[in-house]
Amino acid sequence: MNDRRTAILEAAATVIARRGVRGLRVEELAAEAGVSKALIYYHFEDRTGLLRRTLAFVNNRAERYTAEQAATGQPGAEAPAGPLRRLEQALLLELQDLPHVRENSTAWGELRASAVFDPELRGELALASVIWVREVADQLGEVRPAAPESALTASAERLTALLEGLSARWLSGVLSLTDARTRMREAIGVEVAHLAQLD
Amino acid sequence: MNDRRTAILEAAATVIARRGVRGLRVEELAAEAGVSKALIYYHFEDRTGLLRRTLAFVNNRAERYTAEQAATGQPGAEAPAGPLRRLEQALLLELQDLPHVRENSTAWGELRASAVFDPELRGELALASVIWVREVADQLGEVRPAAPESALTASAERLTALLEGLSARWLSGVLSLTDARTRMREAIGVEVAHLAQLD
DNA sequence: GTCTATAAAGCGATAGAC
DNA sequence: GTCTATCGCTTTATAGAC
Fold it and tell me: Where is the HTH tetR-type domain (chains A, B) (predicted)?
């Protein structure tokens, strides 16, 4: 629809990933998007409004590429194989050193951290979280169809929270990407084994 | 040693927990600590230097109260019981709605998030992380003495990363404290069961 | 070591033309 | 819708007295 608006949101994700929410300057954002500062205030109420929209944008983009890889085979990737492999792929998707993934993960982490002090961001965040947990729970259900719903949800909450913890460590340089990915894969194995015992 | 210095660091943790790293204003910090702005610049090089010292301070304080509860029985708390209970207590310690715990967790989360964009904070952060993982791994070793060292470390990394993820969700209002604590306890159970299978 | 006062710069936000 | 120009407050940081 509105090209400029989208360009600003894309640029906002880029700048947030580069400088953090704390470091986001409307002037730098304007330069990145190739527009004037005033236009940003025209399209978005104020700085916080901009952040809220950016969070929604980042969420959508993440959902979009998760859906893509779930549906059709990625170009250059193998066939999806079984439900366990699809689950692993979905969870490991955020732990990749590709520019747009890193950008999305960084921006997401930043906006989540900001929500601790900015209640306006919480609605968006909670919504995304619920959707994401539900998705993972569904995929776990395909791996372990006999497991009770509540156990699937609990496992999904643990796995997604772990993913966020590992991602934060990776992005802050405390944990290597390789280790983060290994811990994530192990956790999936451990949770799936746990669900098997409940059958 | 230096009373004023410590007072400033304590106040910094308080203000960061209240406003975030981004919201930390030297003026507000000065008021909170009951000193002048200039004194803060006298004791700490600049804003970033202050943050680095505050991160170290928050780490020490967390270690201190973890050690306390591990060593002697908490006032008003039951006897420590077995190694599994001690492990649970240690990991659940950060998921409590007590003012000083919430303050420490919030400040820690903020500083960790800031480290993504501020390499000066990373050293301190990595150090604290290693110590924390080691501690949890040791406690896991007491619960499962037959488990190999590498498996203990991997489990400890997962549990501590999960704790950070759950803590972030709790503090940003996405997850209730009760749910966060439940997920943490379940995860400990799942990991301990996993380690038992490796014996 | 600690304070008051002030410089210097940064930055969000708006007015007004096109 | 979009830009240029600018206002005005906020905030970091320092100078200099005690």
Answer: 2-62
| Structure tokens given for A46 | 């104020």
Mind listing the pLDDT tens digit for each residue in B127-175? 999 999 999 999 999 999 999 999 999 999 999 999 999 999 999 999 9
pLDDT digits (tens, 9 = 90+) for B55-108: 999 989 888 887 777 776 555 556 567 999 999 999 999 999 999 899 999 999
| Secondary-structure class of domain A48-198 per CATH | mainly alpha
Q: Is A76 left (phi over 0), alpha (psi -120 to 50) or beta?
A: left
- Tokens representing A108 are 């997401």
Q: What is the dihedral of CA A11, A14, A18, A22, to 10 degrees?
A: 60
CA of B125 to C1' of C9 (A): 31
Chain A closest CA to B9's CA: distance in Å? 20
CB A33 within 8 A of CB A7: yes
The CATH architecture annotation of domain B51-197 reads Orthogonal Bundle (1.10)
Residue in chain A nearest B116 by alpha carbon: A172
Is A120 within 7 A of strand C by CB distance? no
Q: How far is the CA of A38 from the C1' of D8 (A)?
A: 17
- Residue A36, nucleotide of least CA–C1' distance: D3
Within 8 A by CB and 6+ apart from B102, the residues are B17, B96, B171
A120, HSE (Cβ side, Cα atoms, 13 Å):
11
| Chain B contact set for A122 (CB, 8 A) | 172-174
For residue B2, the model assigns a pLDDT of: 78
Q: Which two tokens stand for residue B155?
A: 């489990």
Domain ranges of chain A: 48-198
Strand C closer than 7 Å to the CB of A47? yes
Q: What is the pLDDT of residues A56-100, one digit of tens each?
A: 999 888 888 777 777 765 555 565 679 999 999 999 999 999 988
Q: Which helix (H) or strand (E) holds A89?
A: helix A83-92
